[in-house]
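Appendix B. Raw example, untouched.
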Amino acid sequence: MFSEKTSGLVVFSVAPWDWLIGLAETGFSTPLFVNKASLALPLVWPQWSHFFTLHLLASLFSFTGIIYSYSFFSLFFQDNRAIAEIQFADYIYPAFDQIVNEAAKFRYRSGNQFNCGGLTIRAPYGAVGHGGHYHSQSPEAFFCHVPGIKVVVPRSPQQAKGLLLSSIRDPNPVVFFEPKSLYRIAVEEVPENDYMLPLSHAEVIREGSDITLVGWGAQLAIMEEACNDAQKDGISCELIDLRTLIPWDKDTVEASVRKTGRLLISHEAPVTGGFGAEVAASIVERCFLRLEAPIARVCGFDTPFPLVFEPFYLPTKNKVLDAIKSTVNY
């Protein structure tokens, strides 16, 4: 689609009023971006009319303003949906004001008379193996602090389709973080039919009795490997995928911790201020007398995301396994 260094706003115009908009910044052809967008269209609209490319400066502030404005004007039409894709979540920060001060507050400031007409912002996030500090960040905690938006993170292709369709059809603004590492390594049968997975409902992936593990996104695969190794040592782990971070399913996590008496939370984002801290604080409030060990967090370090030192930065299987054993043997 782009044969030279360029930045573009790709607008997929779907009859009569629906748009899928994505920012592409690349120095070569972008099959990854085009394929992702093309695959997303049939999920929502079986037939679509045409698409075109509008070249712009790579301004995420202006870009998000466009899709926010569209979602506002879509109030005058029925069943409209605005879907934006920011090619890397690391580039979402210039759009922060539009998302948290406009889209998130639109219903509240109107006295519940209006909403954003269905606004979903897709953003690939997390480590990819060679991204360095500008293509590997996990900024989900920034948005979890903002009332008025939802934050969703799938762990697999099948989950991604069901959660994305639910996000698109939700009347609230949704920031949909997609683990970019899964684009290349995830293999899974995905139903062709239209289906949705409920937002704000955590899923117990693996049942256990000794310790509860909580995570989201690509980190779930790492945690499951650690659970398998812990099982060899006689430790029974219960693994929970939050799926939706805001608002998150406290009841499912609480029920699990009341059973196991222990909790471990893991995510790629830096440990300080990460969303794992919110999970830990909430569970302490609800389950303090049932806890048999301090809550463990296995997360990224409080440094910029490194390039050559990425293997040391990430919360690996061995780090999670060590924390499991330490918590159980406390």
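End of appendix B.
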